[in-house]
Amino acid sequence: MKSNMRGGYRTSLKNLSRFCLLSFAMVSALTPERTKFEYANNKLNVDRREALTKSIASGMVYSGIMASSSFLEIQTVEAATTKNIADLFNAETLTMPPSGRASEFQGVDNTYFPSWMEGEWDVRQTLTSCNTPLGLKFLGGPNGSEEIAMKTIAEQKEKIGIPVNLQLRWAKTKWGVCEDRVFNLRQRLDAFAGRKVVASVEYADVSGSNRKSVLNLGGKESDPLQTTVVYYRGPAAQKTFLLSHDEESVDAGSWAAYETTRSIFALTNTNTAPPITTDSQVVWYLEKLDDNTVKGKLRLADYLNAQSDTLYFESRNRAVSISDYTLELKKVI
Description:
alpha+beta, 11-stranded antiparallel beta sheet, two-stranded antiparallel sheet, 6 helices, 13 strands
């Protein structure tokens, strides 16, 4: 969800939504599904898949958006144990994991990375492939327009092999090393947009991950939380919740994990266009080469959402687009 108010952006709502980044998440979060929503009263066009692609490619976005943390609270839980997470990279299609058991880290739940990921890294992320496992109609918006879908796929494929450079940070906490989501989300969104589109990013409290619990259990004010709110340079905001996650150590020097997220994008002015909700999954594989070098892979999958997509039930909870990336990381600090 990128907004536009400077750097040559026009201030129209149509242009605002075109540059806004919802989600990967998604890769982060970086898949190619385009969904156009026409709001007759204000002629607002929201390019949902382009937004997702730029967001999450961020790795994450890990992308409607809620400008207020009190808008909606999703109970954050850890997914039931997933075996062989690394095998998800070889699957031709993916199914969105359900939320599972309540996390043992209630109040301080997060995705905890291996200790060797602590610090700040120069990252090069390169798209290697993008696929539509269920066919083009699932990328074509509410009416299943193959024309829109074909244009989306063509635009995404033009990005194959083109690296995006950014800096990402992982912070050490009492419970382990986790992603500095506030720092990384800004880095990803700006990097994949090719310009500064983020005004501010902040954490929001949910029951599974909140500042009060972190502090009460001996953590720090700066410790990352799960839920983020992004305010763009224009009347738009995005709130992203972590729905489920799981991690595994493949061996002493390699690690795999996934996260599923729900993002809500909304305009923050007097425009009455309804928010857009998107669901995505990001899969990580990281391999330590030495103390200052890590290589890896990132897979971003996008799913339809019952609130925003008429083909949701037909998709049967399966990914409608999958994008794969390579990662090269060099430690800075």
